[in-house]
Amino acid sequence: MKFTLSSLAALCFATITNAAPTQLIFWDFLGGGDGIRMTQIVDEFNKSQKDIQVTKSTLTWGEPFYTKVHAAVVAGETPDLMTYHLSHFATGIASKDLRPITTEELSQAGLKASDFQQSLVNRSLAISKEYGKSDQLFGVPLDIHTLVLYYNKTALQKSGMLEADGTPKGLDSIEAFKKMLVDVKAKTHMTPIAWSTTSADPASCWRLWYTLFKQQGGDFVKDNKLTFDDVNHQGSKALQTIADMVQQGLITKNTTYSAMVALFTAGRGVFMINGNWEVPTVVDMKKQGKLPFEYGIAPFPKLFDNQDTWADSHQFAIPNNVKKPASPEKIAAALKFVAYVVKQTTWAGGGHIPAYLPLQESDAYKQMSPNNEYSAGAAKDVSFEPALPIFGVGSPSFTAISNYLIPVIDGQMPVDKGISQFTGELEKYAKQQQ
Fold this sequence. Notes:
By secondary structure, the protein is α/β, with parallel strands linked by helices. Helices cover 47% and strands 16% of the residues. The strands form 3 sheets. Strands 6, 7, 10, 11, 12, 14 and 15 form a 7-stranded mixed sheet that branches.
């Protein structure tokens, strides 16, 4: 058999052009509507080009996810890319589970730190410096998710509790808020606030308690040190406020997360305090004719001295696989996919506020309803979780919340005892990590 130079060149060209795409293994913890949207984005990315093929696997949210990631890093059997919570960065970086992403690597993907909301980048870099002794990011921000106030416009209008602009009255102080809720309950005979109040859901309790704590100027960190001084004062007041509202029948008691959502969407709760990730639920039910009322969504109100509101951020991170380091080609492929995802309005359709500023500030996003009812205000009022390993998704603080804060809220323990045992448990966790 004879090969000419031209036929050999043609063969080499065919081999190159038919080269298999770079395979990316991507882990996430996204369930429900978030999971559906991310699957849609992955599918669209795979169809949009032939160089990279992303395979997504969804693991259990929270502690199980981060335990699996750490075990994978230790074993050297990691995915190429994963979702990660900003609130878990302190733990992940301190445990050496995350690989820093250089400015040059971001640049090659067409990204730079200034493309993203500054408060996110600043917090991320502060954690990098503290726990990774690095001036590089350990993740690329995807979004901001925060606490918002869902409300039943129909019920509020009938009870005379809507402002002229269609927003609820009584959102300018805790006293006005509670008075409005008492009036609404008397006039509608409905549950004023649907909220999750069981030990199985410490995250919901934490988000509201932390918001009221921060709105009074409370903090866990002063002079770069963990302190519980404010917890004993502002924290106690925040917990007492919630417990009193439950006792007065203004907030649901012993209610699961799913029951909270069902109560509100069935038209039996006037308000729901929840994250913006439930926006698709009310949007979809309204489209399907299954929501028996007109609804609205507002940023969480300023009930105390400021409007600080709990928030976290989904990020993309690369595992620190020391045993089998990722090749430059894999890193480039992963960041090319990330650059694609952060620019998609599909993810914002899940209620999240885009971290990528060109998208957050775009006309397409500003016109997205009902996101435009809360996103502008909520984005600037975010207060991220304490940058300490004992806090964040999957952290030991969730156990302390379940054991000591929720029993207070449900009337099973006095506030002073709950706060004392809560801080004692956190202090123990902090000492174990030293």
